[in-house]
Amino acid sequence: MFHLISHVFYQNDLPIYGPINVLVTFLKRKKKKYTLVSLPLGLTGENAISGPILAESSPANYSHLVVKIINDLLYILRYCFKAQLKNKDTVIAVDPLNALIFSLFKPFIGYKLIYYTADYSDNRFGSKLLNFIYKKIDLFSLLMADQNWCVSSEIVKKRQGQGFHKKAYFLPNTPILSLAKSTQTNKNKNKIIYVGRMDNNMNLLKILEAVLLLKKKNKSISLILVGGGKLEKRILKLIKEKKLRSFITYKGPLENNEVIKQIKKSGIGLALYDGGNSWNVYGDSMKIREYQYFGLPVITTEIPSNSSEVLEYNCGVVLDESNFDNNDLVKAILAIQKSYDKYTKNTLKLAKNRDKDKILEGLLKI
User: Fold this and answer.
1) pTM
2) Quick check: 297 and 343 in contact, CB under 8 A?
């Protein structure tokens, strides 16, 4: 029996697909029994348990982060007693808070504990006290875990520096889909897509300005925006005022299966992190992995750790996040379009080398 515990990010009241969802897909394929405990990452959302043995859900709405943390721990503790964990079970807990209770119980029950570091930050919170507690829980979870799955090569390096090299395993944010990996057709090279948060940390205004410049050179250029966030109203206003609806489509937040449909019919994927979120440095961009699954060459910055693979496989363009402008982005798009077949073939090669089914089969021995 597998017990999965994770926080879920909500965007416009919609739960966003993440690493734990990929793991659920894998276990379903292997016909393994599991229960998923999901808790909201923010102050609102839904506390839920789903699986063949236990199933429940209830709305969550907290006034303060500390209150939420306490409630999360109590919810997980209650689940432990309900689930009646056994020695033969495997617990996969995503991030420190979710691993804490299971780390405490492990010596008494003896189940296999996998601590899944899906993201990391040297300064997670604005509070020094909360950061201190966060790092201590992280360290305790590492000590008690049988394996530490690291979502990025940068986190693996961090663990090696902490002395946990024997426990640390690289598990990239690659999706597991029913559709086959593929190259992208040349006819889609004018279709650009951005999937992610609509906020100031993703250079969205530069994207819009660059596409406007491209449109003057190439009438076939189009842009699809998928996601929600603080800049949503401003972006919609710009699209309306500048009469851009003929070639810029704003989809808003979508269920993951709908996101995949949009990616599959696009030609170039954008993920222009600016480093405003400290955890992005240790992140393995899932949006980049999803683009690459369908052969989309990527334009990103040096911030996400998998940007190094974009350079290694020559399957896109990596920009300096501190020193690029609209013209640099235009040049990057034109460079990819000029040698599109080469870029998409290299992208597929990388996607195949990061096959998550094979990686998980090796880690879980199933």
Assistant:
1) 0.88
2) yes
The residue behind tokens 């480093």 is 275
Assign 359 a pLDDT band (cuts: 50, 70, 90): very high
Q: What is the Cα–Cα distance from 175 to 19, expressed in whole angstroms?
A: 8
Neighbours of 128 (CB within 10 A): 9
Contact yes or no for 309/343 (Cβ under 8 A): no
Give CA 281 to chain center in angstroms.
13
All residues at 6 or more sequence positions from 290 whose CB lies less than 8 Å from its CB, including other chains: 175, 195, 259, 260, 263, 269
Task: List, in sequence order, every residue forming a beta bridge with 94; answer none if it has no partner.
Answer: 116
Output the pLDDT for position 279: 63
Phi-psi region of 95 (alpha: psi -120 to 50; beta: other; left: phi over 0): left
C-alpha span between 281 and 150 (Å, rounded): 13
Structure tokens at 7: 């926080």
Question: Which residues in 254-276 are b (16+ Cβ under 10 Å) and which e?
Answer: bebeebbebbbebbbbbbbbbee
* Nearest CA among 167, 26, 36, 16 for reference residue 93: 36
Distance CA 317, CA 335 (A): 9
The two structure tokens encoding residue 183 = 């190259």
